[in-house]
């Protein structure tokens, strides 16, 4: 039983980070109908930048994070301006391919700048584990869960009540109607990308604190795809729920099924879930199908 | 066209084995790229799972020739048919899924197929892979670079002629209709399910054949040869070449196969001045690959095929263009 709860806890923590990164995905999809396959690289870059600020420039953690977030926001703005805006009316495959190309480009650049050995974050959170009735939880897990949850709540409030949040939802709902109401669509797109990048960077910093940073971290960009598909590409609530489901399922598969098949199932399991879900609900759990006209 | 074909057949006589080897890779990649273009360019169904389908073809051929000891000439079409069956299986969701959702479903196919290949050790040898032989006919073995090149070229020619004719037939026209507006196509009496699955099957057939030819060329198959990177390379081929263009698939395949080679020479040259450049080669290739994809998407969405047509049109009237 303890093993089960242990797996559940680590699943929830990983799932919460998935939810965070998936949020960035969904935002971009809602605003501009683009699937951002470079998201994993945004996570990676955010993590590396923060690490460099801490270890090389010896900045305190909070300041480093702040600078990282500003950097990520700028990166997002730049990417939107240079790559995505020229492709505004291009077919789906062009946009997907452009983000794949972007991912390659960024991965290559991080490789040039940071090499490819794993780097560890210095100790930031205390390392004495907390025990809850026999279940051991490291403070890093606890902290990242708290941070992610507060960010998710903050974003939900932002979308519900702030002027920009409402504008973003309007653009997502109907681009032309929003534009005719005087909303600057360009500004909304730019801010969407900036937010997605920032969210990815936070995910990267947290993941880096748990596992250390190396190039394989960008795989999260692919692992998050099942999350957003499961929840429905255009649903923020779906991204959050999907994140937890996939995180827990993955952790369970790693704990119980991997020993049976000899490892590796952990990474494939989310995709198996996705195929099954798509067979039953083609638009995910919370996605909207929409009516097609000829 | 005839001149180009003749040139493709004759040039191994003039050059060395290394260049013929590259040409072989180009020919094999062209077959795969045409296959993918049938699905993505002509039928409009995005697939990010080509790498795994190449693997299915390669492994099928490896099992038939090495484990069962049957002939290469038998294995190639069977590899195509098996891959077509697998492709059709993963094409079934395409009836209900569109665009991005379908892309993710094929991505899932990529991961699941590779996982099965890696874990089904008794059949595939797991991570250590399998060894294959070059084909032979009677007493003559196609060991040399030239002879294998001719096999690939012949298959490529067959693929081109088949595909050209496919799009003059009812099936091909139906594919185009599905791409342009699948609801409209359905109203006009095209059974969406049949044609989408058929497109997946035909496309996967050629990808499987390409995979089998590649496996017999490299003489080894192992899971890491068929990763997601390969899928992305094939997508890049048809995008750089031109979606929905057979000529484009070939040009794109040649471009993407030769790109790392040319970059390699570039880095060799640069390392005269910057000795550290060699460590950066892999990263440098990635950057260039990404940059080229983005460049083509933004500045030449029609791809190389479009550039080629522009050049041809220019010279039609040259030197009196106006």
TrEMBL record, chain A:
GO molecular function, one term: transmembrane transporter activity
Keywords, in A-Z order: Amino-acid transport, Cell membrane, Membrane, Transmembrane, Transmembrane helix, Transport
Membrane protein topology class: Multi-pass membrane protein
Coiled coil: none
GO BP terms: amino acid transport
One Pfam family named in its UniProt record: BPD_transp_2
Keyword Transmembrane recorded: yes
InterPro entries: ABC_transp_permease, BCAA_transport_permease
TM annotation in the entry: 6-29, 36-55, 61-79, 91-114, 134-159, 188-207, 237-256, 268-286
A GO cellular-component term linked to this record: plasma membrane
Annotated localization: Cell membrane
Sequence similarity: Belongs to the binding-protein-dependent transport system permease family. LivHM subfamily.
Protein name: Branched-chain amino acid ABC transporter permease
Species: Halobacillus yeomjeoni
């Amino acid at each position: 039983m303890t093993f089960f709860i242990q797996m559940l806890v680590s699943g929830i923590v990983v799932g919460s980070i998935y939810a965070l990164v998936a949020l960035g995905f969904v935002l971009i999809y809602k605003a501009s109908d683009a699937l951002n396959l470079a998201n994993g690289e945004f996570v990676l870059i955010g993590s590396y930048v923060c690490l460099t600020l801490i270890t090389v420039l010896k900045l305190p953690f909070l300041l480093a994070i702040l600078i990282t977030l500003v950097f990520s926001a700028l990166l997002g703005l730049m990417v939107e301006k240079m790559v995505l805006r020229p492709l505004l009316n291009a077919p789906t495959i062009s946009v997907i391919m452009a983000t794949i190309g972007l991912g390659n480009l960024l991965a290559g650049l991080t490789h040039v700048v940071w090499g490819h050995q794993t780097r560890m974050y210095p100790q930031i959170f205390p390392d004495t584990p907390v025990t809850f009735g026999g279940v051991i939880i490291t403070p890093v897990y606890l902290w990242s869960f708290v941070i992610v949850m507060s960010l998710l709540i903050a974003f939900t409030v932002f979308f519900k009540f702030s002027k920009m949040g409402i504008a973003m939802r309007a653009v997502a709902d109907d681009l032309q109607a929003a534009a005719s109401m005087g909303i600057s669509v360009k500004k909304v797109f730019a801010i969407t990308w900036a937010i997605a990048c920032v969210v990815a960077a936070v995910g990267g910093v947290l993941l880096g604190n748990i596992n250390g940073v190396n190039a394989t971290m960008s795989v999260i960009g692919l692992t998050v795809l099942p999350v957003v598909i499961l929840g429905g590409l255009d649903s923020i609530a779906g991204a959050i729920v999907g994140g937890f489901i996939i995180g827990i399922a993955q952790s369970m598969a790693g704990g119980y099924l991997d020993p049976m098949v000899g490892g590796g199932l952990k990474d494939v399991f989310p995709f198996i879930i996705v195929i099954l879900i798509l067979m039953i609900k083609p638009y995910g759990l919370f996605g909207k199908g929409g009516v097609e006209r000829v | 066209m005839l001149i180009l074909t003749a040139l493709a057949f004759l040039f191994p006589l003039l050059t060395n084995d290394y260049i013929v080897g590259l040409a072989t890779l180009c020919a094999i990649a062209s077959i795969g790229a045409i296959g993918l273009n049938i699905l993505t360019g002509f039928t409009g169904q995005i697939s990010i799972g080509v790498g795994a389908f190449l693997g299915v073809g390669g492994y099928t051929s490896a099992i038939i020739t090495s484990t069962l000891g049957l002939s290469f000439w038998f294995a190639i079409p069977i590899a195509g048919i098996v891959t077509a069956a697998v492709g059709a299986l993963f094409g079934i969701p395409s009836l209900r899924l569109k665009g991005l959702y379908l892309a993710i479903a094929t991505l899932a196919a990529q991961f699941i197929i590779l996982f099965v290949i890696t874990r089904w050790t008794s059949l595939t040898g797991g991570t250590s892979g399998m060894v294959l032989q070059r084909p032979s006919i009677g007493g003559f073995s196609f060991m040399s670079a030239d002879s294998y090149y001719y096999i690939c070229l012949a298959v490529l020619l067959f693929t081109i002629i088949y595909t050209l004719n496919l799009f003059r037939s009812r099936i091909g026209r139906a594919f185009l209709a599905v791409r342009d507006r699948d609801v409209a196509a359905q109203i006009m009496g095209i059974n969406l399910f049949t044609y989408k699955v058929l497109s997946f099957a035909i496309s996967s057939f050629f990808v499987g054949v390409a995979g089998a030819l590649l496996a017999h060329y490299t003489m080894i198959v192992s899971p890491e040869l068929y990763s997601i990177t390969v899928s992305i390379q094939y997508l890049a081929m048809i995008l750089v070449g031109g979606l929905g263009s057979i000529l484009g698939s070939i040009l794109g395949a040649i471009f993407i196969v030769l790109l790392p080679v040319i970059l390699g020479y570039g880095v060799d040259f640069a390392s005269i001045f910057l000795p550290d450049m060699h460590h950066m080669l892999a990263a440098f290739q990635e950057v260039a690959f990404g940059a080229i994809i983005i460049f083509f998407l933004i500045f030449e969405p029609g791809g190389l095929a479009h550039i080629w047509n522009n050049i041809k049109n220019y010279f039609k009237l040259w030197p009196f263009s106006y």
